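*** Residues and shapes ***
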Amino acid sequence: MRYIASGNEMSRIDAYTIDNIGIPQMVLMERAALEICKAVTSKFDSKSRILVVVESGNNGGDGIAAARMLVQMGYTVEVYWLNKLANKSEAFMHQYDIAKKVGVKIVDEVLNYGYDVLIDGIFGCGLNRAVIGGHAEVIHMMNDMDAYKIAIDIPSGIDSDTGFILGTAVKVNETITFGLMKLGLLNGKGNEYAGNVKVVDIGFPKQAIDFISPKLFTYDEEDVDKLLPFRRADSHKGSYGKIGVIGGCKNMAGAAMFAAEAAYRMGCGLVRVCTVEDNRYILQTKLPEAMLTTYNPDSKESTREGVKAVMEWADVIVLGPGLGVSDCSRYIVEKVFRDFEKTIVLDADGINIVAENVEMLDNTKAKVVVTPHLAEMSRLTSMKTGEIKESKYDIAKHFAKEHNVTVVLKDSRTIVSNGETKAYINITGNNGMATGGSGDVLSGIIASLCGQGLDIYEAAKLGVYIHGLAGQKAAIIKGKYSMIASDIVKSIMKVLEGDYYAG
């Protein structure tokens, strides 16, 4: 597990490190400058011409210190100091004085050609206003330059929390960010503008990070081994959970099939699909491992008996993939929420039906994981998708706390919250996963982990992470343009291969 910091949280970590721990600002700045130098020297030799563009804050101090070090290594370096800010940080002026004494060339204007490397040290994580005027003109010039571009901490003009462009922003090849990954480098345009992001250690002590305790965290691949349910040598199929999948209206068999197969691939013992009779042949042909309970949607008695049979059997129910929003579907969703008392993973049309009467979430005895994408969350909350995207953490947290559910708010950076202060943000996956059926696969993965005994919040976090890893592995095999949901299902085994399940 590792933290993801907002701009404010990182500023507080920096301040705590300096003021409470006692590590001097200049020590942190020198270490930051060394990391910037490493980024340059690892790719370019000393014949390269380098331009460092800075302003008068601490980000600029990092840049001018790096310029001094590169000059001492034999590189040709120019520093363009915009000097358009009213306030100049003490650390910047200290670095500026040192640079002048050792002969670093400070220029008043630059040509927009002739440089091999461009280092952006204008604004750091503290920027909270639109970039206009002279700063905007310089950023436009930088973007036009044909040079390899490196940003210090975050590309200038990118909001460190939302990743939104504040008027204009520098688009770089590489970002060297300090201490912790910044939220704005993952969200919005931040990920695109930051290029390849490298998180480097410049000396922020664990005590400072733990004291501030950022509200968002994520997983790394080694966490899979630690968090996966243990499989005993003397176990049997009943040991790993019985997953019911209720979904798949006529002509929508695939959604239920993806959820069912993903549940199996994730390691559950048994899956029973409850679907309309029209889907029998498809499901029994495509997924013979799954048991099947069918119903006639035109018969309330048939529907009731089919759903009742699954509820009496299952430990976890995936409710909604391909279910449709007919009167029959509404009856099914209402019945499951009223009578099932174990765990529900609510997805797709199940969410759309609950959005018509959100009180169902409050009145059920079951534990519930809700897995909306932005449009579905809009229906649940009556908020615009743009508002939700801008404040995913706060909205997911509020909804989870208000309705006592676990929320998996799906987006390019999915948020998982159970209503507590800390929430999980996912950094795995890719845009090839923006394909029909991908969400159904996720629901099956989460349900399977719940069925194997994980707490629903833990299952949701780990499930989202594994789902993204499977998407990454599918993209390697099929490519982001060509991968489909079934490729993600097949790639689950690639994520889990190894000794994760040894017992």
